Amino acid sequence: MDILKQNSTTRDDLGMLAVMDALAEEEEVTQRELARRTGLNLKKVNYCLHKLLEKGHIKFQRAVHNPDKRSYLYILTPAGLRAKSHLTYNFLKVTLGFYNEVEERVRRCLQEMAGAGVRQLVLCGISDAARIVMDLVEGSEIQVVGVLDDMYMDTSFNGAPVLRAAELKAQAWDGVLITALDELEAVEAQLRDRGLMEEQIWRLA
Question: Bigger pLDDT: 120 or 166?
Fold first, then answer.
């Protein structure tokens, strides 16, 4: 199974599972807080909530006693709890294969980058692949100096600063590695629009 090229249905299921896991921990929450907890952007969180509502997996109401008017009470229904268990079981079966596959790709890519003289690396896209890269560069000659993601709400990810597109030119770096798992061609096109050359852009796939 090539996780980096998984179909959109699989990615949607992963997003909905992340949202359901977060709601199982705390029902009263804002969409911004859900985005922070799941690592999804606000657009994706909104999409997942609407899909879960359509499927009857959640119901929601405004949190009356919360002064934050954006706070809702999202409640997993019995059908939602069953769906969460089913998705959890399915994804547990592929998780080990996912990490083994991505780790091997990351190791090969890091070796190539080190050989090309890359020392200060910017990751493009917050994802599990980005986490793996950051784990594997520890103790190596390559340092992750930032993670480029305009949709991520926090200012840091896994100990590295989160950069916005406008900040990329001001950051000192030798290469940009695409770690986004969605719309890879569009991500690469955006980097080129920012003036990056072919030899500055690295890919896992």
Answer: 120
The one-letter amino acid at 202 = W
What values do phi and psi take at 23, rounded to 5? -70, -30
| pTM of the shown model | 0.59
Domains annotated for the chain, with CATH where assigned, are 3-95 (1.10.10.10), 116-203 (3.40.50.720)
Closest CA to 52 of 27, 76, 22: 76
Give the full edge-to-edge strand order of the sheet including 72-76.
28-29, 72-76, 58-62
Distance (Å, whole) CA 192 – CA 157: 24
Which of 200, 205, 196, 182 is CA-nearest to residue 47? 182
Beta 28-29 vs 72-76: how paired, if at all? antiparallel
Phi and psi at 68, nearest 5°, equal: -80, 105
Q: In angstroms, rounded to a whole number, what is the distance separating the alpha carbons of residues 153 and 162?
A: 9
Do residues 35 and 42 lie in contact, with contact meaning Cβ atoms separated by under 8 Å?
A: yes
Distance, in Å, from the CA atom of 182 to the CA atom of 101, rounded to the nearest integer, reads: 17
pLDDT tens readout for residues 84-100: 988 887 776 666 677 78
Question: Higher pLDDT residue, 6 or 158?
Answer: 158
Give tens-digit pLDDT for 153-205: 889 999 999 999 888 887 789 999 999 887 888 899 999 998 999 999 999 86
